[in-house]
Amino acid sequence: MNPIAQLDRRFVWHPFTQMRDWMKREPIVLESGKGALLRDVNGREYLDANASIWTNLHGHHHPAINRALRRQLDRVAHVSALGFANEPASRLAARLVRAARRPGKGPKLGKVFFSDDGSTAVEVALKLAYEYTRRTRGPRTKPRFLALQGAYHGDTVGAVSLGHIDLFHRAYSGLLFRSDSVMAPYCYRCPYNRAQPERADAREYRKCRWECVGAVESRLDAATRKGNPYAGFVVEPVMQGAAGMIPQPAGWLSRVTQAARAHGSLVLADEVMTGFGRTGTGPRGNGSLFASIRESVQPDFLCVAKGMTGGYLPMAATFTTQAVFDAFLGEYSEFKSFFHGHSFTANPLGAAASLASLDLLESASSRRDRLRVERTLRSELSQLWGLPAVGDIRQEGTVAGIELVKNWKTREPFALQERAGIRVCEALARRGVLTRPIGSVIVLMPPYCTTARQIRTLVAALRESIDEQLGGLGGDR
Predict the structure, then answer these.
(1) Mean pLDDT (whole number) for 31-45
(2) CATH architecture of 3-61+364-470
(3) What is the architecture, at CATH level 2, of domain 75-361?
(4) What pLDDT is attached to residue 288?
(5) Chain centroid to CA 120: how far?
(6) What is the pLDDT of residue 286?
(7) Nearest CA to 290 among 434, 103, 152, 81?
(8) For residues 71 and 169, which has the higher predicted lDDT (pLDDT)?
(9) Going by C-beta distance under 8 Å and a sequence separation of 6 or more, which residues neighbour residue 351?
(10) pTM above 0.85?
């Protein structure tokens, strides 16, 4: 066994991993990368099909981001944001605000609070919304939050409290505050969708009366009638990630946002996964880098992380409005400051990488790359409809989820214990493609630099892997 693999097995505890299974085989030890390719210590190359857990936008070892980091390293690597400013973070905040002010309805996002990762970005939004509600509705108010079924917003205690994936969160129930959940627009498994399964994205052939919107409106109405409207409605715009890559039908986000605002609730948009161009340009073609604004919705809080530095360094940001910011202004003796912070807030290296990433994202070549990946992925994935174990293929921009089922005609799911998704991803790794499933959903989210040939290769490998592992299931083709 490779000596680094031995060290890993002896000392490292991996996230979201059953370590007993991990210890049964030699791990893949990744050593280097370039573009959409990663290389292990044995010299074998792999396609990075999920952008290193949804973070890497432009490819590995990108020369522009490398140069930006080297320039900043020649100046200073880190300074405190508690009482001091630095140039890269100040410039980055201004750039982010400009990007978030493209056409959209609602309050203008004008302030940025930096943190470290997606969980902390959501935690910041949660704390700000909580205290803002108390200061505007009165200190006796007990702010409550509404999120979607299947929601995942991170692993800090506050973010977990907003989550509704029992498998992840039940162990910590004694630590959490209560938040309410409401049905998500999961068209493929919606109890109100009267359409029979077809070989297409379920959003395209659904038959419903927007009952999912009505459920949100009813929950908001009930809270208002009881005299304690929700302080905030928390949502991943356009597509829920860890819920299983659940895409929202066009128009859903604007409808529920209008309902939330009509009931006095703040809108918290978790764009940790969907931000920075991941969900495409949208039907209106406004070119926004953010999914909510793509849908002409501007939230009261916008949380970003993952791809913010192009996948180089941990950095996150929470955008909010001038109104929220003003609620924390006062004399020193009033102690109205936002008592929250992180040692590496506004880290200059992270900010320098983020600025370089924004330069790339706003370039014409990057826009062409994203469109190429989106179109090629859509075309190639259409071939998977011939596999009986493929129940639904859902794609937004460069993000795709392929739901595996026992029988596409009945939508019968695999039990988690059957490890259908894990088995397919293990087969993919043997074919030189790396990704990670969400239950029985295979996730594809390649870097924007991925070529058409590489996309064809990874989808062909996926087809072979599904057929190998599940080919005897699913009924007639």
Answers:
(1) 97
(2) Alpha-Beta Complex (3.90)
(3) 3-Layer(aba) Sandwich (3.40)
(4) 87
(5) 14
(6) 56
(7) 103
(8) 71
(9) 86, 88, 89, 91, 92, 114, 315
(10) yes
